[in-house]
Predict the 3D structure of the following.
Amino acid sequence: MAKTTKTIVETTRFSKAAGMARKGTLAYLGLYVSAYDAVKPLFAKTEGVFADMVVKGEAIETQTRGVVAIAGVKAGEMATKVREALPLPAANDRLVAAKSAKPSSKIASKKKTTAKKTAVKTKTIKTVKAA
């Protein structure tokens, strides 16, 4: 008889907890519905405003595309003028000049001393393979 009473009490507690959880969930859902009902008139007003903003945005977009196209053309024209004004790079002339120029004795001696100082000793280390 003790087991039956305990089972009935546990079942009753579970039923009460489930009922409270259900009511809490329904109250939460009711809160969302009432909040939506309160804001619904604002949504109706903003739909028209949103559509107007989209139309204005599209108009600005078309104007901007025109300006960007014009700017691209002008930039191309300016680049062409700059290229025409500058002399062509004479890479071969610079290479020939560099080969024919002899370094002064001070520069050559500095290069030799730096080369001596920067010499690095290497050491070979044997490694053992792990099994």
In short: The CA atoms of residues 28 and 41 lie 22 Å apart. The mean pLDDT is 76. The chain is about 80% helix and 0% strand. The radius of gyration is 43 Å.
